[in-house]
Amino acid sequence: MKHRGTHNSRQPTTRTGVTTIEFAFVFSVFLFIVLGFFELGVMLVRHNLLADAAERVLREATVRGSESAAQQWGPAEISTNGSDSMINGVITPSVVMMAANQIQVDVQWPDGNNRPGSRVRVSLSYQHNAIVPYVWGADLLTLQAGCEARVSH
User: Fold this and answer.
1) Residue stretches of the chain with pLDDT short of 70
2) How far, in Å, are 11, 32, 48, 74, 149 from residue 97 at the CA level?
3) pLDDT at 120
4) Distance between CA atoms of 4 and 15, rounded to whole angstroms?
5) CA angle 43–49–54, rounded 5-degree value
6) Residues 128-138: pLDDT tens digits?
Protein backbone atom coordinates (compact mmCIF):
# COMPACT_ATOMS: atom_id res chain seq x y z
CA MET A 1 0.00 0.00 0.00
CA LYS A 2 1.30 3.40 -0.99
CA HIS A 3 1.01 6.26 1.42
CA ARG A 4 0.09 9.61 0.03
CA GLY A 5 2.60 12.40 0.42
CA THR A 6 5.66 10.20 0.88
CA HIS A 7 8.65 10.61 -1.30
CA ASN A 8 10.34 7.66 -2.88
CA SER A 9 14.11 8.20 -2.66
CA ARG A 10 14.68 6.36 -5.91
CA GLN A 11 12.82 8.92 -8.00
CA PRO A 12 15.05 11.59 -9.60
CA THR A 13 14.63 15.15 -8.34
CA THR A 14 14.12 18.13 -10.59
CA ARG A 15 16.57 20.34 -8.63
CA THR A 16 19.73 19.46 -10.56
CA GLY A 17 22.24 22.36 -10.64
CA VAL A 18 20.45 24.47 -8.03
CA THR A 19 23.23 23.96 -5.50
CA THR A 20 25.81 25.21 -7.99
CA ILE A 21 23.82 28.34 -8.76
CA GLU A 22 23.17 29.04 -5.07
CA PHE A 23 26.89 28.61 -4.35
CA ALA A 24 27.77 31.04 -7.14
CA PHE A 25 25.46 33.72 -5.69
CA VAL A 26 26.58 33.25 -2.09
CA PHE A 27 30.27 33.02 -2.99
CA SER A 28 30.16 36.19 -5.12
CA VAL A 29 28.58 38.14 -2.26
CA PHE A 30 31.10 36.69 0.20
CA LEU A 31 34.01 37.55 -2.11
CA PHE A 32 32.70 41.11 -2.57
CA ILE A 33 32.53 41.56 1.23
CA VAL A 34 36.02 40.13 1.78
CA LEU A 35 37.54 42.33 -0.92
CA GLY A 36 35.69 45.33 0.53
CA PHE A 37 37.25 44.68 3.95
CA PHE A 38 40.68 44.30 2.31
CA GLU A 39 40.20 47.61 0.48
CA LEU A 40 39.15 49.30 3.71
CA GLY A 41 42.27 47.98 5.44
CA VAL A 42 44.56 49.30 2.72
CA MET A 43 42.86 52.71 2.87
CA LEU A 44 43.22 52.89 6.65
CA VAL A 45 46.90 52.00 6.51
CA ARG A 46 47.52 54.59 3.81
CA HIS A 47 45.62 57.23 5.79
CA ASN A 48 47.73 56.51 8.89
CA LEU A 49 50.93 56.74 6.83
CA LEU A 50 49.72 60.03 5.36
CA ALA A 51 48.99 61.39 8.86
CA ASP A 52 52.48 60.37 10.00
CA ALA A 53 54.00 62.12 6.98
CA ALA A 54 51.99 65.28 7.79
CA GLU A 55 53.38 65.24 11.34
CA ARG A 56 56.92 64.87 9.99
CA VAL A 57 56.49 67.84 7.64
CA LEU A 58 54.95 69.85 10.48
CA ARG A 59 57.92 69.12 12.73
CA GLU A 60 60.34 70.26 10.03
CA ALA A 61 58.33 73.44 9.49
CA THR A 62 58.23 74.25 13.21
CA VAL A 63 61.99 73.90 13.70
CA ARG A 64 62.89 75.82 10.51
CA GLY A 65 61.42 79.18 11.48
CA SER A 66 63.00 82.63 11.23
CA GLU A 67 65.53 81.94 14.02
CA SER A 68 66.70 78.57 12.70
CA ALA A 69 70.35 78.05 11.79
CA ALA A 70 69.26 75.51 9.15
CA GLN A 71 67.50 76.33 5.88
CA GLN A 72 64.39 78.32 6.81
CA TRP A 73 60.89 77.44 5.66
CA GLY A 74 58.21 80.06 5.14
CA PRO A 75 56.48 82.40 5.47
CA ALA A 76 55.71 81.93 1.78
CA GLU A 77 53.23 79.11 1.25
CA ILE A 78 54.66 75.80 0.06
CA SER A 79 52.44 73.87 -2.32
CA THR A 80 54.13 70.98 -4.09
CA ASN A 81 54.01 67.25 -4.60
CA GLY A 82 56.11 64.85 -2.58
CA SER A 83 58.87 64.64 -5.18
CA ASP A 84 60.09 68.15 -4.26
CA SER A 85 63.65 67.76 -2.88
CA MET A 86 62.87 69.75 0.29
CA ILE A 87 59.79 67.65 1.14
CA ASN A 88 60.80 64.26 -0.26
CA GLY A 89 63.42 63.49 2.35
CA VAL A 90 60.94 64.28 5.10
CA ILE A 91 57.97 62.18 3.92
CA THR A 92 59.70 59.24 2.22
CA PRO A 93 60.18 57.18 5.42
CA SER A 94 56.45 57.45 6.14
CA VAL A 95 54.85 56.80 2.78
CA VAL A 96 56.09 53.31 2.02
CA MET A 97 52.80 52.21 0.38
CA MET A 98 52.41 55.32 -1.80
CA ALA A 99 54.37 57.07 -4.51
CA ALA A 100 55.74 60.30 -3.03
CA ASN A 101 55.17 62.22 -6.27
CA GLN A 102 51.41 61.52 -6.00
CA ILE A 103 51.10 63.20 -2.61
CA GLN A 104 50.10 66.86 -2.59
CA VAL A 105 51.79 68.79 0.23
CA ASP A 106 50.61 72.23 1.37
CA VAL A 107 52.38 74.19 4.14
CA GLN A 108 50.89 77.51 5.27
CA TRP A 109 51.73 80.11 7.88
CA PRO A 110 48.31 81.56 8.83
CA ASP A 111 49.84 84.37 10.92
CA GLY A 112 51.82 85.60 7.90
CA ASN A 113 55.29 85.01 9.36
CA ASN A 114 57.58 82.22 10.48
CA ARG A 115 58.74 83.73 13.78
CA PRO A 116 58.64 81.57 16.94
CA GLY A 117 55.11 81.35 18.32
CA SER A 118 53.48 81.78 14.90
CA ARG A 119 51.23 79.03 13.59
CA VAL A 120 52.13 76.65 10.79
CA ARG A 121 49.56 74.39 9.12
CA VAL A 122 50.33 71.29 7.03
CA SER A 123 47.91 69.33 4.86
CA LEU A 124 48.62 66.32 2.68
CA SER A 125 46.30 64.65 0.18
CA TYR A 126 46.58 61.49 -1.89
CA GLN A 127 44.38 59.99 -4.60
CA HIS A 128 43.80 56.38 -3.56
CA ASN A 129 43.16 54.08 -6.50
CA ALA A 130 40.71 51.43 -5.40
CA ILE A 131 41.95 47.87 -5.74
CA VAL A 132 38.37 46.74 -6.27
CA PRO A 133 36.68 49.54 -8.23
CA TYR A 134 33.25 50.74 -7.16
CA VAL A 135 33.21 48.95 -3.78
CA TRP A 136 32.93 52.41 -2.21
CA GLY A 137 31.05 54.00 -5.10
CA ALA A 138 34.12 55.30 -6.94
CA ASP A 139 37.48 54.04 -8.12
CA LEU A 140 39.37 57.14 -6.88
CA LEU A 141 39.12 58.30 -3.27
CA THR A 142 40.94 61.29 -1.82
CA LEU A 143 42.72 60.62 1.46
CA GLN A 144 43.64 63.72 3.48
CA ALA A 145 45.62 64.41 6.62
CA GLY A 146 46.57 67.65 8.30
CA CYS A 147 47.91 69.19 11.48
CA GLU A 148 48.84 72.54 12.98
CA ALA A 149 51.41 73.73 15.53
CA ARG A 150 53.48 76.75 16.54
CA VAL A 151 56.95 77.57 15.22
CA SER A 152 59.58 76.86 17.86
CA HIS A 153 62.84 78.17 16.28
Assistant:
1) 1-16, 134-136
2) 60, 23, 11, 29, 26
3) 96
4) 21
5) 125
6) 988 777 666 77
Predicted TM-score of the model (pTM): 0.80
CA dist., res. 73 & res. 66, Å (int)? 8
* 3-class SS string, the chain: CCCCCCCCCCCCCCCCCHHHHHHHHHHHHHHHHHHHHHHHHHHHHHHHHHHHHHHHHHHHHHHCCCCCCCCCCCCCCEEEECCCHHHHHHHCCCCCCCCHHHEEEEEECCCCCCCCCCEEEEEEEEEEECCCCCCCCCCEEEEEEEEEEECCC
Q: What is the pLDDT of residue 71?
A: 86
